[in-house]
Amino acid sequence: MCCGRLDRSLKALKHCLEAAGTSLENVVMVRIYAVNSGFYNAINRVYGKYFSVNPPARTFVPVASWPMEFDIEIECVATA
Questions:
Q1: Residue 5 φ then ψ, to 5°
Q2: What are the φ and ψ backbone dihedral angles of 24, each rounded to 5 degrees?
């Protein structure tokens, strides 16, 4: 399901940010694309684990289809 993938994606994002000298605390914007709008509540639960205090701005974008095989894509903007 999408939430396991989102959890893994956010863990990887955390590590990438730390390798770049920043952290999840410095994320100012997150955009989550999902192939099913029904994932919204489950995504909120996972997202809340990573951004529980002062969460960044977020956009949830349901996408009907795309040419690759995945349920979730995430992008973010963070300050150094």
A1: -70, -40
A2: -60, -30
